[in-house]
Amino acid sequence: MATIVVAEDEKDIRELLVFILELAGHRVVAVPDGAQAVEAVRREMPDLVILDVRMPHMDGYDACRLLKQDARTAHIPVIFLSARGQDSEVQTGLEAGAEKYIVKPFSPEELLKEIAPFVDAKP
Amino acid sequence: MPQPKEVLDAQTRPYAWHLLLQDVRQLVPGAQAVSLWCSGGQQGPLRFQTAWGFQHPDVFLDVPLEPDSPWGLALETLQPRILDRSQWQIFLLSQPQWADLYEQARGAQPQLPQRTLILPWPQAASVFSFDAWEPDAELRPPAPEAWQDALRPYRFLGHVLAGWSAFARAIAGALDAFPRLLTTAPEEFFSTALDILRTILPYDRATAWMREGDVLVLRAVRGMEDSAVAMATRLHLQDHPLLQTLQTTRRPVWMPTGRLLPEIHPQDSPSHSCLSLPVFEEATGRLMGVLMVERDVPYGFLGNEIRMGTRFARSLADFLSYNQAFQEAHQTRVTLQQRTHYLEALYRLSEALTQTLDPQALWRLASQHIHEALRAQRTQAWAYEENGQASLRPVVQIPEGTAPLPAPSATEVAPLLSILKQGQALAILQPTRDERVQGLLRAGNGHTPYLLLLPVGQEDRFHGFLWVERETAFPPEEQHLAQTMARQLATTLHNAQLYQISQSLTQDLERRVRERTRALEQERRRAQLLAHAFAELAGSLDLDQILNRTLETLVDELPVEQALVVVTRADQEHLYWRAGRGHKRPAYGGEPTSIPREDTVARVLLRERVPLVIPDTDHYPEPLEPWWTLLGRRYGSLIAVPLLIGAESLGGLVLLREAPSTWDVDDVEMLQTIGMQMATAIQNAELFEIIQEQAENLGALFRQQQIEAQRAKAILDSVADGIVVTDAHGTITLLNPSAERLLNIRAQQVLGRPLDHFLGIFGPAAAQWMDAIQLWYQDPTAYQNEVAETQIETEGGRVLSVRLAPVFLKQEFLGTVSVIRDITHHIEVDRMKSAFVANVSHELRTPLTAIKGYVEVLLAGMTGELTDRQKHFLTIIRNHSDRLVNLVNDLLDLSRLEAGRIRIEPEKVELESLLRDVVRDFRRRIQKEKRHLDLQEEIESPLPAVYADPKRTEQILANLLENAIRYTPDGGTITVRARRYDDNFVVVAVQDTGIGIAPEDQDKVFERFYRGHHPLVLASPGTGLGLPIVRQLVEMQGGRIWLESEGIPGKGTTFFFTIPIYTGQEPFPEGRT
After folding, report:
1. For A14-18, A36-40, B509-513, B872-876, which range has the lowest pLDDT when averaged over its residues?
2. Would you list the domain boundaries of chain A?
3. ipTM metric
4. B893: which chain A residues are within 8 Å (Cβ-Cβ)?
5. Testing the interface with B: which of A11, A13, A110 to mutate, by most B Cβ within 10 A?
6. Greatest mean pLDDT range, B68-72, B134-138, B527-531, B986-990
7. Domain spanning B721-822, CATH class
8. Strand ranges inside B532-665, DSSP E
9. Were both Cys, which of B110, B285, B336, B722 would link to B742 (CB 3.0–4.6 Å)?
């Protein structure tokens, strides 16, 4: 079981993610914006962070940068899950330090396959 | 040979120089040439003195080495210097002439030394320069002690070089001697010159030559008087190479190892040296003479000596001309005085002779003047008369009052007379012993010192002779004068005779003149008529005026009552009455007649082309009725001449008289001449009409073209797009007001200038524009149907679109036209549109994510078992949401493509492996989707690498395969082919056995949202955007795409697209269509 922090401002999609990930047997902490995501990560020290890009208060890019600049959280892998899929946006995400960038929409199967390398090793 | 190391005086100095060169060059093994350069003690330039090892060292004489040259620096620092190849090259940068000088001096290649060693000789204010040409030559400076030891014996020479005192004295002495040359007799001039030369340039032998026409004549010799050279030996300038050189270069020729042989052809001699100095006139450059000197030692002349000798020779030229002028002036003065005296005498005589025509008086006057002019003691004149028998008669004796000499009989002096009749004066030196005058002397008094007999006239105009005697001899000039005076008398006597004859002739003449005047009057009348006619014919181009005036003249001047001109016309059977004067005349411009071409007169005029004269028409056998009908009356006599141009007859000139009469032959000839002139005038007038008509046509055409051009310009001026036109050389020839406004530039600033110059204003922004133009100008025809399109951004932030096209007229490249349009607004709209599409897409994706996500969750059974029907319905929802997602993705792609936001990043791509990878992926997919399709590949191997963006190439292929899979029912085959297309492209084909595309749809499939009407198409989740995106991408990579399909299901469709082959350089930039 792995702990995953999910930040997604759209409530329906947040719930979908929580449902899929919990069904796969992970512990999920879900928040609606970037600022809370950073807070949750520092508190929970999860195995993976999934961030939406466009969110109120603090967007995913900034949240990712904060996490990657903080020595305590820099090692935690970050995956972007965004409706924005242009090359420049993907580029920005990867430059912010993320390990992956998944463009919405996604199927549950795909999502689980994408996060597998980061969480499967966990008991 | 004397020992110069101990004794050094002026005579032995040359040996010393020779030995010095020998000594120093032994100190530097490997040196192939040595030269000595001296600054003369001042800080000035170094001048050449002597050398060993050069074929023509004299070329160095005129070129000093500057103090800042390596040689100057060696002397200044007193340190040896070595010049290798690179230092030579540096020196040549500022003194390039030395390469030529060395080549001339050496007379061999290579001209420049491999290495040069410069050693200073401080005591002589000089340097030695050692040269070596061998590639591995190594010139080492000798040990300082050895160098000083070698130079020590030559200290005296050093002083000579450094101080010049001895030379200065020598020159002063020579200058003192120069005035002597002025008054020297000409034959002594060159001997004296050689003696003076010896004081400044001691020699062992010398010769001096003076020019006379094209030859040089030997005038003086020193040191070889006993040799075979004869004075006045002549050398032809043209034949002699040395003289040719002296004449053309005007410089001395120094042979370091040569001598003047007796025949004066310098030849090589290892133990002599010789020098030739040209003497030429400074102002004209004309060679006047040559001095040649020789020494019995090789390398025997020093540079300063040669310069001195040259200067001497130059001064000598001046003095030679002074000397000549002096001698001439002296001679002229003497002869001038005498000539004045003679001319005076002659003048006075001729003046006197004009006063009378009486022969007796003429004899007296002439005798008097000759007597005085010759200061004679006695003068006697004898007149010779030949009235049946020859006789002599004394006519004058001077002084007057003395008794005349008794007349000898003409037969007695016949031999003398026959001599005198030849007209030459006869001077008798010893009259008493001269047989020729014995007959005269017998009549004289016996004492006759010197005698001059002057004939008056000669041969059959012999009037007699004068006897002049005096105590002194008659010099040739006086004989000549006296003879001239006697001839003057003869002429005057002859004139007097002629005067008498002419008076008797005058009366006869007057009679003859009267007769001739009458004949001339006739001629004059005809000539005047012709002149009149010609003047009329040539005076105008108005044919009516010409012909009528000419006919009027004829009617006025000749006894005729009617004159007319008839002509033929190519298209008419009858003669045309062109002009007429007299009783009847045609309408202005002429009128038709009923006289056929077969008429008697017409036939003679047109076919036989000869004049026709009918003195009496009543007795003429042929009918003349048509003419009487034309003129309205009968005439008694007719003459007709053809109007001839070459062999062609244009018609005829016809004159008529009322009464029968004959015609003067001269008048007929005159009329023929007028006929020919008329013909010419008619032709000229016709030509003029044609030319005038053509000129008017051309004028109208030109005016029309001008209007067209103005209209075109007005259109260009008023279009909103900027237009720039260049000619075939790239020069701007037109820039319309819109272009001025858009580019913010004045037409006057750029018209007539090259386009690239003007584009420079816009910097890199216009680079692409410029590249296209340059490419076109290199080979215009290759881009005949191309249009280049680019955008430039102005400083004001506006974006201009530039479309450039070449202009051709019938394959000829005329230039280019660029159309410029402000698209700032379009760009802005495009940008807004893209932003809008991006936002909309994003907004659409979010709800789609939720729909798709939850449906997938449900379908995966994560929320519990579903019935088959629920599964079926949820699958439908998922498929449609997938289709929506695709649509959104494609829309986004296309909008970004069109906005130019997607960039092609081409690189070298191994197409073969790329194709195989994509095909492999699709095979997996077909398997996964459980489709029964056979995916084949036929890829030519090896396939050339291409120049493309790998990601986009994959996208193109994937899109096409996607379509193929989608529209091919199970059981079909899909084949991917690739091969080299031509030299520049690879072609890739994707062939399926699907539903095909109907011919009427084939053009539309590349349009947005076009999906055809086939049920399978409408059922599949396509967006109608795939092919437009593919086409955009293919074209951005520089390729093109097309398809082939018969529109029959099962036969399928093949899509082809091309990719440029990688050549190692970027192909034509994007924008080419």
Report:
1. B509-513
2. 3-114
3. 0.83
4. none
5. A13
6. B986-990
7. alpha beta
8. 562-567, 574-582, 591-596, 612-614, 637-645, 648-657
9. B722
Of B838, B853, B892, the CB nearest to A106: B853
Residues of A in contact with B881 (CB under 8 A): 105
pLDDT in tens, A13-59: 999 999 999 988 999 999 999 999 999 999 999 999 999 998 888 89
Provide the pLDDT confidence category of residue B538 given band limits of 50, 70 and 90.
low
Residue B769 C-alpha from the chain's centroid:
38
pLDDT of residue A47: 93
Q: What average pLDDT does this structure show over B355-373?
A: 85
End-to-end CA distance of chain B: 95
Q: Where are the domains of chain B?
A: 13-163, 179-329, 354-504, 540-681, 721-822, 829-883, 904-1060
Cβ distance of B853 and A107 shorter than 8 Å: yes
Q: Which residues pair with B254 in a beta bridge?
A: B275
Q: Do domains B179-329 and B721-822 have the same CATH topology?
A: yes
Q: Which residues of A touch B896 (CB under 8 A)?
A: 86
* Nearest neighbour of B846 by CB, restricted to A20, A83, A106: A83
Name the CATH topology of A3-114.
Answer: Rossmann fold (3.40.50)
- Show residues of chain B in contact with A85, CB under 8 Å: 889, 892
* CATH homologous superfamily for the domain B354-504: GAF domain (3.30.450.40)
Please report how many Cα atoms fall inside a 13 Å half-sphere around the Cα of residue B826, on the Cβ side: 10
Report CA-CA distances (Å) from B894 to B903, B1029, B1059.
Answer: 13, 6, 21
Contact B287, B246 (CB under 8 A): yes
- Minimum distance, in Å, between the CA of residue A70 and any CA atom of chain B: 31
Secondary structure (DSSP) of B694-742: HHHHHHHHHHHHHHHHHHHHHHHHH-SSEEEEEETTSBEEEE-HHHHHH
CB-CB under 8 Å, B852 with A106: yes
Reported as a single tens digit per residue, the pLDDT across A79-99 is 999 888 777 888 899 999 999
Which homologous superfamily is B13-163 in? GAF domain (3.30.450.40)
Distance (Å) from the C-alpha of residue A8 to the closest C-alpha of chain B?
11
B196-230 tens-digit pLDDT: 888 778 888 888 888 888 888 888 888 876 665 66
What H or E segment, with its residue span, contains residue B757? Answer: helix B755-759
Task: Determine the residue among B834, B839, B841, B842 to mutate to test chain A binding: the one whose Cβ has the most chain A Cβ atoms within 10 Å.
Answer: B842
User: The domain B540-681 is classified under which CATH number: 3.40.50.720, 3.10.580.10, 1.20.1250.20, 3.30.450.40?
Assistant: 3.30.450.40
* Domain B904-1060: CATH architecture, name and number where available: 2-Layer Sandwich (3.30)
Q: Is the pLDDT of residue B2 over 60?
A: no
- In chain B, the residue whose alpha carbon lies closest to the alpha carbon of A10 is B846
**In this model, does residue B62 exceed pLDDT 60?**
yes
Top CATH class, B179-329 = alpha beta
Q: What is the pTM of this model?
A: 0.35
